[in-house]
Amino acid sequence: MSGRAWVFGDDVDTDAIAPGAWMKFDIDVLSRHCLEALDPAFARGVRAGDVLVAGRNFGCGSSREQAAQALRHLGLAAVVARSFAGLFYRNAINLGLPVLECEQAGRIPAGAEVALDLEAAAIRLAGGETLRCAPIPGFLLDILRAGGLLNQLERRLAAARERKPA
Amino acid sequence: MPQTLAQKLVARAAGRAAVTPGEIVVCRVDLAMFHDSSGPRRLKPMLERLGARLWDPARIVLVTDHYVTGDDAESRAIVGLARDWARAEGIRNFHDGVGICHVVLAESGYLRPGMFAVGADSHSPTGGAFGAYMFGIGATEMLGVVVTGEIWLRVPDTILIEWNGRFGDCVCAKDVMLYLCERFGLDGGAYQALEYAGSAVEALPMQERMTLANMTAELGGQTGLIAPDAVTCDYLAQAGVRESEIDIAPWRSDAGAPLAAHHRFDAGALAPQVAAPHSPANARPVAEFENVAIDVAYVGACTGAKLEDLRMAARLLRGRRVARGVELLVAPASRKDQDAARREGVLGALEDAGARLLPNACGLCAGYGERFAPEARVVSTTARNFRGRMGAASTEVFLASPYTVAASALVGRIADPRAVLQ
Asked: Is the pLDDT of residue B34 over 70?
């Protein structure tokens, strides 16, 4: 997967990603306000396949999984950050949003074309440079490949039903 | 091999004799809690798609607290959906509009030392104050829990944070956590288990311990644990838990258990703290803020409006009036705490000082309904002052303890409660 980089700083919180005032509405409405306090052009400007790049502790704060859902809904291919808040990291995987922890995320300039390889945990920049990321454990890659935990559960339950006909 | 409290709690839930930090285990969940925003509105459509049943309705607790003020049709629909779902699914542990989930969960006697519990809310580490491994998850992960009864976990490292000695007058758990946010940053907890210990922590009443565990979320820890003791047992007895159901003996860290870090602090050296906009990590001693004029003083949230918090505010406000032009808002964290505060004269002292009472709900802290005005300057007992969370981007929220918020309401500027009491 590849796309343009949207670059943000450290400690981007889930209140900024999924603003509270819009939480009572569906994801279509909520995602239009995604990160508007930090970059009013973001939600309108994102194209399918773009990548969000951030500093440390991305997604800190609230457990609201609409933060990960909104980013995915806008079409982002992945979030790359120096580090993630643990709760957001789990939510992102569960919602099928790829997340890559990259110590060198700061080397990616805004607007750069980046190509991601989740299995290899690597990011390739347009100039040919490759940035190594922390590998995603296999059982989490499985959830991402299924498109999220809901899809994975659905397949598991269907398989269990087939084994044990009612 | 000596084990930390966190390791022991996870090992029990994973059905293992011992676990090692870093390994991935699957744990059986003893208790799953969610609220109107994170719960039925998101779980119901997913459960329907799966055609799945709840693994154990008796282990599920539902609390409505985020949208219960019903400010508009959307909010009322979210709460209505939660009520209908609870009825249809036979959820008996349903607490409707009687307080904030973390406080209701504790006061209703659901938490026990040794439990492994999850909550669909980031402040779920609050349960760690009881020596239970409790942490926050999102709604889809909660779906996995309520369908399978299980959840995966990376066995955490333990960061031991000791406070010894005695806290000074008007210094409390909230000051401790703001200080730690400044000292270690919002990712200082590294999504590991934090354990709070030391003579100053042992001297704290249960709700103050809950404030420590609660704000572990702001420190970026997964859970915030406190080894249970006689204080825990007394609180649980009052919450209606039978003595035979409480066993505290196994639930403490062994001497020599492996620690990722061990920090020691002198409780007596800590001053009241204030965190400037827009991060809890912007904390500094109150003296550095004393010329900051305020419009609103807010006593609210699971972090800062429990009975103990209301008592702290009343100690400053009793027999005094808030400064002209300052609005003092008080949203007691639960109806039970509000009733107790009423009985002991605490609520009356707040009202006589000029406080306006708000519903027992998340209220302005969540920012899901009523919000602070643009440009308003607020001093608040809540946990988070991220830009735009509780109001507009131009709203300025300063975080402080109930003592400091009450003192500031009286003076009209951010004020040191110790000076106000003199």
From this structure: yes
**Residue A161: Cβ within 10 Å count:** 11
Nearest to B186 among A11, A16, A153 (CB): A11
A85 vs B140: CB contact, 8 Å cut-off?
no
Name the pairing type of β-strands A113-117 and A122-125.
Answer: antiparallel
User: Number of A:B CB contacts under 8 A?
Assistant: 118
Which residues, in sequence order, are CB contacts of B57 under 8 Å at separation 6+? B89, B90, B91, B92
- CA B138/CA A143 separation, integer angstroms: 15
What is the crossing angle of helices B139-148 and A149-163, to 10°?
20
Q: What is the pLDDT of residues A10-47, one digit of tens each?
A: 999 999 999 999 999 999 999 999 999 999 999 999 99
Whether ipTM > 0.85 holds is yes
- Beta-strand ranges (E) seen in B312-417 are 327-330, 356-357, 377-380, 396-400
SS3 label, residue A101:
strand
Task: Find the residue in A nearest to B389 (Cα).
Answer: A15
Q: How many helical (H) and strand (E) elements, i.e. helices and strands, does chain B have?
A: 15, 18
Phi–psi pair at B42, nearest 5 degrees: -100, -35
Q: What would the two tokens of residue B266 be? A: 């002198």
Rounded CA Rg of chain A: 16
Please give the full DSSP string across B133-188, using - where no structure is assigned. Answer: EEEE--HHHHHHHHHHSEEEEEPPPEEEEEEES-PPTT--HHHHHHHHHHHH-TTT
From A32, A29, A56, select the one nearest A45 (Cα to Cα).
A32
d(C-alpha B25, C-alpha B15), whole Å: 10
Distance between CA atoms of B290 and B200, rounded to whole angstroms?
27
Which uninterrupted H or E stretch holds B107?
helix B101-107
Element (H, E) at B284: strand B283-285
Compute how many other C-beta atoms are within 10 angstroms of the C-beta atom of residue B1.
Answer: 10
Closest partner residue to B138 among A37, A61, A63, by Cβ? A63
CA-nearest of B126, B151, B124 to B140 is: B151
Q: Where are the alpha helices (DSSP H) in A18-148?
A: 27-31, 42-45, 66-73, 86-94, 138-146
Q: Averaged over B19-43, what is the pLDDT?
A: 98
Are B347 and B317 spatial neighbours (Cβ–Cβ below 8 Å)?
no
Model pTM score? 0.98
Closest A-chain CA to B46: A150
With vertex at residue B272, the alpha carbon angle to CA B267 and CA B274, rounded to the nearest 5 degrees, is 130
Bond before B95 cis per omega within 30 degrees? no
> CA of A86: which chain B residue's CA is closest?
B191
B187 and A11: CB-CB below 8 Å? yes
Strands B261-266 and B223-225: unpaired
Beta bridge partners of A113: A4
Query: Helix B402-411 and helix B307-317: axis angle, to 10°?
Result: 30
- Please tell me the distance from the alpha carbon of residue B47 to that of residue B40, in angstroms, as a whole number: 10
pLDDT digits (tens, 9 = 90+) for B240-261: 999 999 999 999 999 999 999 9
- The Cα of B67 is separated from the nearest Cα of chain A by a number of Å equal to 9
